[in-house]
Amino acid sequence: MTVPTQPYNALDIAVDLIRCPSVTPADEGALATLANYLAPLGFNCERMRFSEDGTPDVDNLYARLGSGSPHFCFAGHTDVVPVGDVAQWTVDPFGGEIVSGKLYGRGAADMKGSIASFVAAVSRLVREGKLTEGEGSVSLLITGDEEGPGINGTVKMLKALKARGEVIDHCLVGEPTCVSKLGDMMKIGRRGSINGWLTVKGMQGHVAYPHQAENPLPRLIEMLARLNAHELDKGNAHFQASNFEVTTIDTGNTATNVIPGTAHAVMNIRFNDEHTGASLDQWMRRTFDQVVQEMGGSYEFKTQISGESFITQPGDFSALIARAIKSVTGETAEMSTTGGTSDARFIRAYAPVVEFGLANATMHKVDEHVPAGDIGKLADIYEAVLRGYFNGSKTS
Protein backbone atom coordinates (compact mmCIF):
# COMPACT_ATOMS: atom_id res chain seq x y z
CA MET A 1 0.00 0.00 0.00
CA THR A 2 1.28 3.46 -0.95
CA VAL A 3 -0.16 6.04 1.41
CA PRO A 4 -0.84 9.39 -0.27
CA THR A 5 1.95 11.86 0.44
CA GLN A 6 -0.55 14.52 1.50
CA PRO A 7 -3.92 14.32 3.26
CA TYR A 8 -6.87 14.56 0.93
CA ASN A 9 -8.68 17.81 0.28
CA ALA A 10 -12.33 17.36 1.24
CA LEU A 11 -13.56 19.86 -1.34
CA ASP A 12 -11.86 17.98 -4.18
CA ILE A 13 -13.54 14.75 -3.12
CA ALA A 14 -16.91 16.46 -2.85
CA VAL A 15 -16.60 17.81 -6.38
CA ASP A 16 -15.71 14.37 -7.74
CA LEU A 17 -18.68 12.77 -5.99
CA ILE A 18 -21.16 15.43 -7.12
CA ARG A 19 -20.06 14.84 -10.72
CA CYS A 20 -21.44 11.30 -10.44
CA PRO A 21 -25.18 11.68 -11.26
CA SER A 22 -26.23 9.06 -8.71
CA VAL A 23 -29.97 9.70 -8.58
CA THR A 24 -31.39 6.93 -6.42
CA PRO A 25 -30.99 4.00 -6.98
CA ALA A 26 -28.38 4.58 -9.72
CA ASP A 27 -24.73 4.58 -8.65
CA GLU A 28 -23.14 6.14 -11.76
CA GLY A 29 -19.61 5.66 -10.44
CA ALA A 30 -20.03 7.32 -7.05
CA LEU A 31 -19.02 4.28 -5.00
CA ALA A 32 -16.06 3.52 -7.24
CA THR A 33 -14.93 7.13 -6.91
CA LEU A 34 -15.13 6.81 -3.14
CA ALA A 35 -13.28 3.48 -3.12
CA ASN A 36 -10.51 5.01 -5.23
CA TYR A 37 -9.85 7.47 -2.42
CA LEU A 38 -10.19 4.92 0.38
CA ALA A 39 -8.13 2.01 -0.95
CA PRO A 40 -4.79 3.90 -0.92
CA LEU A 41 -5.43 4.72 2.76
CA GLY A 42 -5.52 1.00 3.55
CA PHE A 43 -9.29 0.48 3.61
CA ASN A 44 -10.66 -2.89 2.60
CA CYS A 45 -13.43 -1.84 0.21
CA GLU A 46 -16.31 -4.24 -0.26
CA ARG A 47 -19.20 -3.69 -2.65
CA MET A 48 -22.43 -5.04 -1.18
CA ARG A 49 -25.26 -5.45 -3.67
CA PHE A 50 -28.75 -6.36 -2.54
CA SER A 51 -32.04 -6.93 -4.28
CA GLU A 52 -35.60 -7.84 -3.40
CA ASP A 53 -38.65 -8.55 -5.49
CA GLY A 54 -40.40 -5.37 -6.48
CA THR A 55 -37.51 -3.09 -5.53
CA PRO A 56 -34.47 -1.85 -7.48
CA ASP A 57 -31.13 -3.60 -7.09
CA VAL A 58 -28.84 -1.38 -5.01
CA ASP A 59 -25.07 -1.10 -4.79
CA ASN A 60 -23.56 -0.18 -1.43
CA LEU A 61 -20.02 0.18 -0.13
CA TYR A 62 -18.57 -1.03 3.15
CA ALA A 63 -14.99 0.09 3.70
CA ARG A 64 -13.04 -0.73 6.86
CA LEU A 65 -9.56 0.21 8.03
CA GLY A 66 -8.26 -2.12 10.74
CA SER A 67 -10.03 -4.96 12.45
CA GLY A 68 -9.71 -4.19 16.14
CA SER A 69 -11.88 -2.55 18.74
CA PRO A 70 -13.18 0.07 19.28
CA HIS A 71 -14.83 0.28 15.90
CA PHE A 72 -15.95 3.76 14.84
CA CYS A 73 -18.27 3.94 11.83
CA PHE A 74 -19.09 6.86 9.55
CA ALA A 75 -22.40 6.24 7.78
CA GLY A 76 -24.05 7.98 4.87
CA HIS A 77 -25.39 7.74 1.34
CA THR A 78 -24.19 8.62 -2.13
CA ASP A 79 -27.61 8.47 -3.77
CA VAL A 80 -29.40 11.76 -4.29
CA VAL A 81 -32.91 12.92 -5.10
CA PRO A 82 -33.83 13.90 -8.69
CA VAL A 83 -32.86 17.39 -9.79
CA GLY A 84 -36.39 18.39 -10.81
CA ASP A 85 -36.67 20.97 -13.57
CA VAL A 86 -33.11 21.34 -14.85
CA ALA A 87 -34.06 24.62 -16.51
CA GLN A 88 -34.52 26.20 -13.09
CA TRP A 89 -30.94 25.48 -12.06
CA THR A 90 -28.41 28.25 -12.63
CA VAL A 91 -25.59 25.67 -12.83
CA ASP A 92 -25.17 22.09 -13.99
CA PRO A 93 -26.72 20.02 -11.16
CA PHE A 94 -23.89 17.52 -11.52
CA GLY A 95 -21.12 19.94 -12.40
CA GLY A 96 -19.70 20.41 -8.93
CA GLU A 97 -19.12 24.09 -9.64
CA ILE A 98 -17.80 26.57 -7.09
CA VAL A 99 -19.46 29.96 -7.55
CA SER A 100 -18.89 32.92 -5.21
CA GLY A 101 -17.42 30.65 -2.55
CA LYS A 102 -20.26 28.13 -2.64
CA LEU A 103 -20.18 24.54 -3.89
CA TYR A 104 -23.21 23.83 -6.05
CA GLY A 105 -24.68 20.52 -7.11
CA ARG A 106 -27.16 17.84 -6.21
CA GLY A 107 -25.81 16.17 -3.09
CA ALA A 108 -23.60 19.06 -1.97
CA ALA A 109 -25.53 19.24 1.30
CA ASP A 110 -27.23 15.85 1.32
CA MET A 111 -24.73 14.35 1.68
CA LYS A 112 -21.71 14.04 -0.58
CA GLY A 113 -20.05 16.96 1.19
CA SER A 114 -20.13 15.05 4.47
CA ILE A 115 -18.82 11.85 2.89
CA ALA A 116 -15.92 13.81 1.40
CA SER A 117 -15.20 15.18 4.87
CA PHE A 118 -15.23 11.66 6.34
CA VAL A 119 -12.50 10.60 3.94
CA ALA A 120 -10.39 13.74 4.31
CA ALA A 121 -10.48 13.47 8.11
CA VAL A 122 -9.37 9.84 8.08
CA SER A 123 -6.60 10.59 5.58
CA ARG A 124 -5.01 13.02 8.03
CA LEU A 125 -4.72 10.40 10.75
CA VAL A 126 -3.47 7.76 8.32
CA ARG A 127 -0.84 10.15 7.03
CA GLU A 128 0.46 10.50 10.62
CA GLY A 129 0.61 6.74 11.09
CA LYS A 130 -2.46 6.67 13.30
CA LEU A 131 -5.20 4.04 13.10
CA THR A 132 -2.67 1.23 12.73
CA GLU A 133 -3.53 -2.35 13.57
CA GLY A 134 -4.32 -2.72 17.26
CA GLU A 135 -5.50 0.88 17.66
CA GLY A 136 -9.09 0.17 16.77
CA SER A 137 -10.77 0.52 13.41
CA VAL A 138 -12.68 2.99 11.30
CA SER A 139 -15.27 2.15 8.69
CA LEU A 140 -17.52 3.84 6.19
CA LEU A 141 -20.96 2.33 5.66
CA ILE A 142 -22.27 3.98 2.51
CA THR A 143 -25.58 3.11 0.89
CA GLY A 144 -27.12 3.91 -2.46
CA ASP A 145 -30.67 3.47 -1.15
CA GLU A 146 -31.27 6.17 1.48
CA GLU A 147 -33.30 8.43 -0.78
CA GLY A 148 -35.17 5.41 -2.16
CA PRO A 149 -37.21 2.67 -0.47
CA GLY A 150 -34.52 2.06 2.15
CA ILE A 151 -34.83 -1.71 1.70
CA ASN A 152 -31.64 -2.81 -0.06
CA GLY A 153 -29.20 -0.51 1.68
CA THR A 154 -28.30 0.16 5.29
CA VAL A 155 -30.73 -2.39 6.75
CA LYS A 156 -29.27 -5.31 4.81
CA MET A 157 -25.69 -4.12 5.21
CA LEU A 158 -26.06 -4.06 8.98
CA LYS A 159 -27.62 -7.52 9.03
CA ALA A 160 -24.79 -8.88 6.90
CA LEU A 161 -22.14 -7.38 9.17
CA LYS A 162 -23.81 -8.78 12.25
CA ALA A 163 -24.08 -12.23 10.67
CA ARG A 164 -20.33 -12.36 10.22
CA GLY A 165 -19.57 -11.06 13.69
CA GLU A 166 -18.63 -7.45 12.97
CA VAL A 167 -19.61 -5.08 15.77
CA ILE A 168 -19.91 -1.31 15.41
CA ASP A 169 -19.21 0.42 18.72
CA HIS A 170 -20.28 3.96 17.77
CA CYS A 171 -21.60 5.59 14.61
CA LEU A 172 -21.70 9.12 13.24
CA VAL A 173 -24.09 9.76 10.34
CA GLY A 174 -23.27 12.70 8.09
CA GLU A 175 -26.82 13.90 7.40
CA PRO A 176 -27.14 17.69 6.99
CA THR A 177 -28.25 18.64 10.49
CA CYS A 178 -27.36 22.30 10.81
CA VAL A 179 -29.97 25.02 10.34
CA SER A 180 -28.45 28.43 9.69
CA LYS A 181 -24.72 27.82 10.11
CA LEU A 182 -22.28 24.98 10.54
CA GLY A 183 -22.24 23.77 14.11
CA ASP A 184 -25.60 25.00 15.36
CA MET A 185 -27.32 21.59 15.56
CA MET A 186 -26.62 17.88 15.88
CA LYS A 187 -29.16 15.09 16.06
CA ILE A 188 -29.21 12.64 18.96
CA GLY A 189 -32.48 11.03 17.94
CA ARG A 190 -35.42 11.20 15.59
CA ARG A 191 -39.16 10.91 15.82
CA GLY A 192 -40.78 7.84 14.35
CA SER A 193 -43.05 7.84 11.31
CA ILE A 194 -46.14 5.81 10.47
CA ASN A 195 -48.19 6.13 7.28
CA GLY A 196 -51.81 5.03 7.03
CA TRP A 197 -54.10 4.33 4.08
CA LEU A 198 -57.83 4.38 4.88
CA THR A 199 -60.68 3.35 2.58
CA VAL A 200 -64.27 3.87 3.73
CA LYS A 201 -66.86 1.90 1.79
CA GLY A 202 -70.29 3.06 0.68
CA MET A 203 -72.62 2.64 -2.28
CA GLN A 204 -72.52 4.76 -5.40
CA GLY A 205 -75.72 6.47 -6.49
CA HIS A 206 -77.37 9.59 -7.87
CA VAL A 207 -77.25 12.67 -5.63
CA ALA A 208 -80.98 13.20 -6.17
CA TYR A 209 -81.73 9.77 -4.70
CA PRO A 210 -79.58 9.58 -1.54
CA HIS A 211 -81.84 6.87 -0.07
CA GLN A 212 -80.64 4.59 -2.86
CA ALA A 213 -76.97 5.25 -2.14
CA GLU A 214 -74.61 5.26 0.81
CA ASN A 215 -72.21 8.17 0.99
CA PRO A 216 -68.88 7.18 2.62
CA LEU A 217 -67.62 10.75 2.96
CA PRO A 218 -69.41 11.74 6.18
CA ARG A 219 -67.92 8.68 7.90
CA LEU A 220 -64.48 9.38 6.51
CA ILE A 221 -64.67 13.02 7.60
CA GLU A 222 -65.75 12.00 11.10
CA MET A 223 -62.94 9.45 11.39
CA LEU A 224 -60.31 11.97 10.38
CA ALA A 225 -61.80 14.72 12.54
CA ARG A 226 -61.56 12.55 15.64
CA LEU A 227 -57.96 11.65 14.94
CA ASN A 228 -57.08 15.26 14.23
CA ALA A 229 -58.78 16.55 17.40
CA HIS A 230 -56.90 14.15 19.68
CA GLU A 231 -53.77 15.48 21.37
CA LEU A 232 -51.27 12.65 21.19
CA ASP A 233 -48.89 14.19 23.73
CA LYS A 234 -47.27 17.47 24.72
CA GLY A 235 -43.72 16.46 23.90
CA ASN A 236 -41.01 15.90 26.48
CA ALA A 237 -37.49 16.87 27.42
CA HIS A 238 -35.96 15.49 24.23
CA PHE A 239 -38.82 15.45 21.72
CA GLN A 240 -41.35 17.86 20.29
CA ALA A 241 -45.01 16.85 20.39
CA SER A 242 -46.19 14.10 18.07
CA ASN A 243 -48.33 15.30 15.17
CA PHE A 244 -51.03 13.70 13.04
CA GLU A 245 -51.44 14.99 9.50
CA VAL A 246 -53.88 14.13 6.71
CA THR A 247 -51.98 14.22 3.42
CA THR A 248 -54.65 13.16 0.89
CA ILE A 249 -58.43 12.82 0.66
CA ASP A 250 -59.85 11.44 -2.57
CA THR A 251 -62.90 9.70 -4.04
CA GLY A 252 -61.83 9.47 -7.66
CA ASN A 253 -65.17 11.04 -8.49
CA THR A 254 -65.19 13.59 -11.33
CA ALA A 255 -68.99 13.94 -11.58
CA THR A 256 -71.01 16.52 -9.66
CA ASN A 257 -74.19 14.44 -9.52
CA VAL A 258 -72.82 11.14 -8.27
CA ILE A 259 -72.44 9.98 -4.67
CA PRO A 260 -69.11 8.13 -4.57
CA GLY A 261 -68.90 4.47 -3.68
CA THR A 262 -65.64 4.73 -1.74
CA ALA A 263 -63.59 7.45 -0.13
CA HIS A 264 -59.89 7.32 0.58
CA ALA A 265 -57.49 9.17 2.84
CA VAL A 266 -53.76 8.97 3.49
CA MET A 267 -52.26 10.10 6.78
CA ASN A 268 -48.93 10.32 8.57
CA ILE A 269 -47.96 10.57 12.21
CA ARG A 270 -44.53 11.74 13.31
CA PHE A 271 -44.24 10.46 16.86
CA ASN A 272 -41.93 10.69 19.82
CA ASP A 273 -40.84 8.04 22.29
CA GLU A 274 -44.14 8.17 24.18
CA HIS A 275 -45.60 5.97 21.43
CA THR A 276 -44.73 3.08 19.17
CA GLY A 277 -45.88 2.45 15.65
CA ALA A 278 -48.00 -0.46 16.89
CA SER A 279 -49.71 1.58 19.60
CA LEU A 280 -50.63 4.29 17.10
CA ASP A 281 -51.94 1.74 14.63
CA GLN A 282 -54.20 0.35 17.37
CA TRP A 283 -55.37 3.84 18.38
CA MET A 284 -56.42 4.70 14.83
CA ARG A 285 -58.25 1.41 14.38
CA ARG A 286 -60.12 1.87 17.68
CA THR A 287 -61.21 5.32 16.54
CA PHE A 288 -62.44 4.00 13.20
CA ASP A 289 -64.31 1.14 14.89
CA GLN A 290 -66.09 3.61 17.16
CA VAL A 291 -67.25 5.69 14.20
CA VAL A 292 -68.53 2.57 12.41
CA GLN A 293 -70.46 1.54 15.54
CA GLU A 294 -72.11 4.95 15.61
CA MET A 295 -72.61 5.62 11.89
CA GLY A 296 -72.52 2.20 10.26
CA GLY A 297 -70.55 1.19 7.20
CA SER A 298 -67.19 -0.48 6.91
CA TYR A 299 -63.59 0.38 6.18
CA GLU A 300 -60.20 -1.02 5.23
CA PHE A 301 -57.01 0.25 6.76
CA LYS A 302 -53.33 -0.52 6.37
CA THR A 303 -50.25 1.07 7.85
CA GLN A 304 -46.52 1.16 7.22
CA ILE A 305 -44.05 2.08 9.94
CA SER A 306 -41.12 3.90 8.35
CA GLY A 307 -39.21 3.90 11.62
CA GLU A 308 -39.65 3.95 15.35
CA SER A 309 -38.59 6.92 17.42
CA PHE A 310 -35.20 6.66 19.08
CA ILE A 311 -32.75 8.66 21.13
CA THR A 312 -29.09 8.28 21.97
CA GLN A 313 -29.13 9.62 25.50
CA PRO A 314 -26.72 12.52 26.00
CA GLY A 315 -23.45 11.15 27.35
CA ASP A 316 -19.77 10.79 26.56
CA PHE A 317 -20.27 10.12 22.84
CA SER A 318 -22.53 13.08 22.13
CA ALA A 319 -20.32 15.25 24.33
CA LEU A 320 -17.27 14.24 22.31
CA ILE A 321 -18.94 15.36 19.10
CA ALA A 322 -20.19 18.58 20.69
CA ARG A 323 -16.65 19.42 21.86
CA ALA A 324 -15.28 18.80 18.38
CA ILE A 325 -17.91 21.09 16.88
CA LYS A 326 -17.17 23.85 19.36
CA SER A 327 -13.41 23.55 18.92
CA VAL A 328 -13.71 24.23 15.19
CA THR A 329 -16.73 26.53 14.89
CA GLY A 330 -17.10 28.06 18.36
CA GLU A 331 -20.75 26.97 18.27
CA THR A 332 -22.56 25.11 21.06
CA ALA A 333 -24.56 22.61 19.03
CA GLU A 334 -28.16 22.05 20.04
CA MET A 335 -28.78 18.35 20.68
CA SER A 336 -31.98 17.95 18.69
CA THR A 337 -34.43 15.25 17.62
CA THR A 338 -36.26 17.34 15.02
CA GLY A 339 -36.55 16.70 11.32
CA GLY A 340 -37.46 13.75 9.16
CA THR A 341 -36.26 10.19 9.23
CA SER A 342 -32.77 9.03 8.29
CA ASP A 343 -30.88 5.75 8.19
CA ALA A 344 -29.88 6.41 11.79
CA ARG A 345 -33.22 4.80 12.64
CA PHE A 346 -31.77 1.48 11.47
CA ILE A 347 -28.30 1.94 12.92
CA ARG A 348 -29.59 2.70 16.43
CA ALA A 349 -30.46 -1.01 16.85
CA TYR A 350 -26.77 -1.86 16.46
CA ALA A 351 -24.83 0.99 18.04
CA PRO A 352 -25.16 4.42 19.66
CA VAL A 353 -25.61 6.87 16.81
CA VAL A 354 -25.39 10.65 16.43
CA GLU A 355 -25.92 12.70 13.28
CA PHE A 356 -23.94 15.76 12.30
CA GLY A 357 -23.26 17.33 8.95
CA LEU A 358 -23.61 20.47 6.87
CA ALA A 359 -26.44 23.02 6.79
CA ASN A 360 -29.69 21.68 5.36
CA ALA A 361 -31.24 24.88 4.01
CA THR A 362 -30.89 23.92 0.32
CA MET A 363 -31.03 20.13 0.40
CA HIS A 364 -33.46 18.65 -2.16
CA LYS A 365 -33.90 22.13 -3.67
CA VAL A 366 -32.99 23.69 -6.99
CA ASP A 367 -29.42 25.05 -6.86
CA GLU A 368 -28.50 22.95 -3.82
CA HIS A 369 -25.30 24.38 -2.38
CA VAL A 370 -23.14 24.81 0.72
CA PRO A 371 -20.36 27.25 1.58
CA ALA A 372 -17.23 25.65 0.13
CA GLY A 373 -15.25 26.47 3.26
CA ASP A 374 -17.70 24.53 5.43
CA ILE A 375 -16.64 21.26 3.85
CA GLY A 376 -13.07 21.75 5.07
CA LYS A 377 -14.33 22.80 8.50
CA LEU A 378 -16.51 19.71 8.65
CA ALA A 379 -13.45 17.58 7.92
CA ASP A 380 -11.72 19.38 10.82
CA ILE A 381 -14.64 18.47 13.09
CA TYR A 382 -14.62 14.83 12.04
CA GLU A 383 -10.86 14.74 12.56
CA ALA A 384 -11.29 16.09 16.10
CA VAL A 385 -13.95 13.47 16.77
CA LEU A 386 -11.64 10.67 15.65
CA ARG A 387 -8.70 11.95 17.69
CA GLY A 388 -10.84 12.24 20.79
CA TYR A 389 -12.43 8.86 20.21
CA PHE A 390 -9.20 6.93 19.83
CA ASN A 391 -7.59 8.80 22.71
CA GLY A 392 -10.19 7.21 24.96
CA SER A 393 -12.75 9.97 25.38
CA LYS A 394 -15.57 8.04 23.71
CA THR A 395 -17.97 5.49 25.17
CA SER A 396 -21.63 5.56 26.09
Describe the structure.
The protein is 30% helix and 26% strand. It is built from nine helices and 19 strands. With 396 residues, the chain is an alpha+beta fold. A six-stranded mixed sheet has the order 1-2-6-3-7-18, sandwiched between helices. Strands 12-14-10-15 form a four-stranded antiparallel sheet, covered by helices on one side. Strands 4-5-19 form a three-stranded antiparallel sheet. It has two domains: 10-190 and 309-390, Zn peptidases (Aminopeptidase), CATH 3.40.630; 192-307, 2-Layer Sandwich (Alpha-Beta Plaits), CATH 3.30.70.360. Helix 1 packs across helix 3, helix 3 crosses helix 9 (372-390) and helix 5 (217-229) packs across helix 6 (277-295). The longest helix has 20 residues, at 108-127. The model has no long low-confidence stretch (mean pLDDT 95). Strand 4 (98-99) and strand 5 (102-104) form a beta hairpin.
Summarize the helices and strands and which ones pair or pack:
Layout: H1 10-18, H2 30-38, E1 44-52, E2 55-65, E3 71-77, E4 98-99, E5 102-104, H3 108-127, E6 137-143, H4 154-163, E7 170-173, E8 185-187, E9 189-190, E10 192-201, E11 205-206, H5 217-229, E12 243-250, E13 258-259, E14 262-271, H6 277-295, E15 298-307, E16 310-311, H7 316-329, E17 334-336, H8 344-347, E18 353-355, E19 369-371, H9 372-390
Parallel strand pairs: 3-6, 3-7, 7-18, 8-17
Antiparallel strand pairs: 1-2, 2-6, 4-5, 5-19, 9-16, 10-14, 10-15, 11-13, 12-14
Helix pairs in contact: 1-2, 1-3, 3-9, 5-6, 7-9
